Amino acid sequence: MTIKLGVPSKGRLMEKTFQWFGARGITLQRTGSDREYAGAVEGIDDVTLMLLSAGEIPRELAAGRIHLGVTGTDLVQEKLALWEQLVQPVEELQFGHADLIIAVPQAWIDVDTLDDLDAAAAAFRAHHGFRLRIATKYHRLVRNFLRAAGVADYALVDSQGATEGTVKNETAEAIADITSSGETLRANHLKILSDGMILQSQATLWRSRTAPMEDADRVTMAKLTELLA
Amino acid sequence: MPTRSETLARAAALRALFEAQGAVLVEPPILQSAETLLDLYGEDIRARAYVTSDALRGEQMLRPDFTVPVVQMHMLHGAEPARYTYSGEVFRRQELDPGRANEYIQVGYEVFDREDPAAADAEVFALIADALKGLPLRAITGDIGVLMAAVEGLQTTARRKQALMRHIWRPRRFRALLERFAGRAPLPPSRVALLAGEVTCSAPLIGVRSGAEVEARVTALKDDAAAPAIPAMQVDLIQALLDVRETMPHALSRLRDLAVDMPAIAGAVNRVAAREIALKARGVDTANLLFEASYGRTTMEYYDGFVFGFRSETRAGLPTIASGGRYDALTRRLGQGREIPAVGGVMRPGLMLELEGAQ
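ok -> structure tokens follow
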């Protein structure tokens, strides 16, 4: 048996993760051709690298098919109900920072807080006959947040990409999305609600609470966590 | 735990009880229009109901309750007065508590009758209470209509009353609004700046919400800032009303005291009193029946008058065994111009058997 480590399979998230492990004496690398999702681990024995889509890592951790995985707090909390019972954060990796926020058009000078959003949503529904639409891919997180805040008369519409453009395209009135610097929001004439911070996320190394381990795996895991600490 | 066939047998027996009262058996489909339910409950329903979809009909929901389809059916072609009974599975997502069933059998009884609302309330409650006799349960009753009448009677603008009415079901938001309207909560800095005319924007307006709508709300906020605060005494009276939690006779005398200072609730309090008499006439021991003025406010339901629930005395963690209430406004919303006073309740035979087994 080996310890299975899930890492995002492409882009900056993969590179930064490789660097983070490299700085701790563990070399992760892709093997084979550029298009092949196979990897190798040096610096510790009995650890297997699994290159996966960042969005699938929470599910694999929860199912216990991987022992460790790197992915954002946002994805873990969106995809896993009762996530605390399924996974445990090992280390925050200090990159991949992103805030899940609610943003509305800058020209809405009357809307700055959730309370404003709620009132504007009521008036919008009365005027247009449908609920104020919020575009997002983080349905559970956004819904739970708005319910706790007592916001009503909105509808979530699914947007898996280019979410900042949905308001201009008139497929939504507001958005809930991740942002790191806010530049894309500003460029699209949107502003963040002052109390609209849903979650502050960053790349995090998670440990599965459900993955089966043999004695040898426990030894490997102990060695690994010592190197990473 | 009772088996499925035991639960179904009990459900059939309960249904027969209601049929003996003249109720017509109805069997609404499991798949319900997602649009109707979303329109009624908003996005919150998605956290509670299972959504499914196909390429032809779009989104549909596995019925989270029977009341909505029964009301729809009655409003479409029901005779008057009408009594209905039904039983079958309802489906509820349980993402926070894996111990709670996400599929269970409900048996229900619904009364559509214009004649005597107090008698209809008492009929539904007493029949369900009878069916539950012998189980270690405690009944709680309430009346959302009293709170609604209190809000309606506040000395303030129509807009504020409307905002409070809209959030009757969200106690935290309701409280926050009331504090703000009473001038007891500080305004956020952005609102202060907006009212002072210090907020401008050079960014282009994008999206469906128009400049006129933004302007209209700015005007509304300025009007609101100029409107006098709701007197502190009236806010305290609402709180005193929400705090009423006594047995029926004491609660009624408390409500009558409050009605002296809040004359707007007098009519609603009279309805509570009439209901007490009707319950007594049905043999309910109202001297020991709990009345909680805030009961039923957090259940995301559509009740706007009498509400009731039966909870286990021995197992606090168990969901409500039976519950119900009056939903006149729902018939108006689903009735496309027509309406009829309606009251109903549901029971969970599976939980009843579980409690019997534990005795």
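The mean pLDDT of chain B is 94.
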